[in-house]
Amino acid sequence: MDVRVGGTRLVGMEVQTPDGPARMWFTGEYREIVERRRLVYTESMSDEDGNVLSPADVGMPEGIRRRRSPSSSIRSTVSPGW
Q1: Among the listed ranges 2-11, 29-38, 54-63, 70-79, which one has the minimum average pLDDT value?
Q2: pLDDT per position as a tens digit, 12-68
Q3: CB-hemisphere CA count at 13 Å for 54?
Q4: Are 62 and 54 in contact, with CB atoms under 8 Å apart?
Q5: 22, 27, 33, 42: most buried, per Cβ within 10 A?
Q6: Are 24 and 13 in contact (CB under 8 A)?
Q7: pTM score, two decimals?
Q8: φ/ψ (deg, to 5) at 80
């Protein structure tokens, strides 16, 4: 992870499933950083090399996009620096 504005991230996760381990990759770019206050970044599913995958590539219908931000109640429980 290159945590600076314009820096990129590549995160790999592995979960155990009944059929064995499943690996997922996510990539993104840091857009805004205010130390101990705010971290804004993009996130897309990707392959292990950081190439962005379309929803169809991962078995989802096209056009699905989600944008989330914590509610004020969640935001108040996050410790500084998280």
Answers
A1: 70-79
A2: 999 999 999 999 999 999 999 999 999 999 999 999 999 999 888 888 876 655 556
A3: 5
A4: yes
A5: 27
A6: yes
A7: 0.65
A8: -55, 140
Separation of alpha carbons 64 and 31, rounded Å: 22
14 CB-near residues (< 8 Å, 6+ apart): 21, 22, 23, 24
CA distance linking residue 30 with residue 5, whole number of Å? 5
User: 55, 62 in Cβ contact below 8 A?
Assistant: yes
Beta-carbon-side half-sphere exposure of residue 56 (alpha carbons within 13 Å): 2
Amino acid in the structure at residue 59: G
Residues in CB range of 61: below 8 A, 6 or more apart: 55
In this structure, which amino acid lies at residue 48? E
